[in-house]
Structure formats: C-alpha cells, structure tokens
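Researcher: I'd like a structural prediction for the single chain below. Treat it as a standalone chain; there are no partners to consider.
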Amino acid sequence: MILVNTDYIPGKEIVEALGLVRGSTIRAKHLGKDILSGLRHLIGGELKEYAELIREAREYALRAMETEAKELGADAVVNIRFATSSVAQGAAEVLAYGTAVKLK
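Model: Treating it as a single chain, here is the predicted structure.
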C-alpha cells in the first residue's frame, strides 16, 4: 500500500477515488510517565514520554487507516493528514485520514 501526503504519486496514474478513509485512537497518559514529564516540564527539555505516546498513537492511527483502505480495495492513500485533539483531561485523540485510490 502506497501512503503519501501529496495528491499524486509520481509515476502512477490515479484511476478512481474510493473515498475518505480514516483511523483513530484515543490514548491516555500513564501516571508514572506523567510524573516524569512533570519533572522535565519544571527543568525544561523534551517531554520524551509524551512524544513517545503521540508517536505510537500516530502509527496506530495510520495502520488503522491503511486497513480501512485495504478493505475498500485501494492501492494507495493520498492526501494523508493527521489531527490531534484533547478529548478529556490527560487523554488525546490522534486521527489519520486521506483519500483511498485505485491506480493504473
């Protein structure tokens, strides 16, 4: 499966748009990691625990989107975008979405 954030794929011709596909996950902070990040927030620096959480959530959402595209019979997903939103105190949603397409 080809996954790109552009509206085209070099060297390929899109012959059919199958529709919007998406994948999402909602992740909550781990209490132990939350404490470590709180300490880092006080002294400065990257909040590695949160960065890891969001990275894992992005990957999960991307794979869920890819699965939905495969179910439609897609060869690729174009115009992939990510959105993140807070859904509750200490929890965030990561959404991956794009257009499933058939290629020539």
